[in-house]
Design goal:
single chain; about 220 residues; alpha/beta; Rossmann fold; six-stranded parallel sheet; two-stranded antiparallel ribbon; about 40% helix
């Protein structure tokens, strides 16, 4: 079966953002006279957001008295360093060009705040026509609630059942399934050691972005 639109998670699915997060976290750790952490440790928690990265890097919980200050400092630094190393995952240029050539609507649904997602996409300067960019700021309930999925399909004018949603976190698959979309786990993404994607009940599990082409209008 082929689908009429492609919707994507951002960090760990469409964009490889881990290197910038790694640089920012280590900059903050150095400023706080703490030991740096490895790229792989950061990569595994990127999809869980800034809270998870700060918690991992400083080995503290969210109720620690310094947590709020460190998270704010982390986000401030990231706002100055969000598009230095970030790039499309290998293979996505082909996928997005396919959408462009065949006028297949595509868009992004992310839990990344608009204050970061919008300038990031703009500053990357990629030559692809984005159909929608849905962030938590645009809805009442973010993923795993399906509300952002419905908003995206309204903006691109495609029935949810005719859409694919690709993500690297359980909340992505839960949100896509709840909206009636075909769901794809991005095995190339930021999967944590504790993740068990096979239990997420996705429709497809792909190892490369190019495999998405098998689901789109030829």
């Amino acid at each position: 079966m082929h689908y009429d639109a492609l919707l994507l998670d951002l960090d760990g699915t469409l964009l490889d953002t881990a290197a910038d997060f790694h640089a920012v976290l280590n900059q903050l750790l150095r400023a706080e006279n703490r030991s740096e952490v490895s790229y792989q440790k950061v990569r595994r928690v990127v999809s869980h957001g800034a809270r998870a990265m700060v918690s991992m890097g400083f080995d503290i919980s969210e109720d620690h008295p310094d947590f709020a200050r460190l998270r704010e400092a982390f986000l401030t630094l990231y706002g100055q360093h969000y598009a230095v190393h970030t790039c499309l995952f290998e293979g996505f240029s082909e996928v997005l060009q396919h959408c462009e050539d065949r006028q297949i609507p595509w868009g992004i649904i992310t839990n990344k705040p608009a204050a970061f997602a919008e300038p990031l996409w703009r500053d990357l300067g990629l030559p692809y026509q984005l159909g929608c960019l849905i962030c938590p700021d645009h809805v009442t309930l973010a993923k795993p609630n399906p509300e952002p999925m419905y908003l995206a399909t309204q903006q691109i004018g495609i029935d949810p059942k005719r859409c694919i949603y690709v993500g690297d976190h359980r909340r992505d698959i839960d949100a896509g399934r709840a909206a009636g979309m075909a769901t794809v786990v991005a095995n190339w993404g930021y999967l944590d050691d504790d993740d068990q994607p096979i239990t997420w009940q996705a429709d497809h599990y792909f190892d490369t972005p190019q495999q998405i082409l098998t689901l789109l209008t030829p």
